[in-house]
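Incident log, structure service

09:12 report received: a user says their structure output differs between two submissions of the same chain.
09:20 pulled the input from the user's history:
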Amino acid sequence: MIKMDEEKVTQEQLQLVSFFLGGEEYALNSKLVQQIIELREITPIPQSPDFMEGVIDLRGEIIPIINLHLRLGLEKKPLDEKSRIIIIESKGSLMGF
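09:34 re-ran on a clean worker, output below:
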């Protein structure tokens, strides 16, 4: 009688949050995404790079907001009622785009 070792195969499901940018679909690991919020007033920061839209106050926390169109060299698109801000955590800091 031959005893066969059964390999344990574990499958980790990757959950993604997808969004459109410049006509292309992108995705982020959902573990990075803290929340998705409606547009709100963004306070500009003087003398910041062009891709830095500014900051928002989210429940007392100041969150920098980056314009990914400009950061990635894409044409800037106007914001509309469907536009959202995705808040992510990276290296212990929150940021939005």
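09:41 both user submissions now match this output. Likely a transient worker issue. Closing.
09:42 reviewer note: Residues 32-96 form a domain with the OB fold (Dihydrolipoamide Acetyltransferase, E2P) fold (CATH 2.40.50.180). Helices lie at 68-71.
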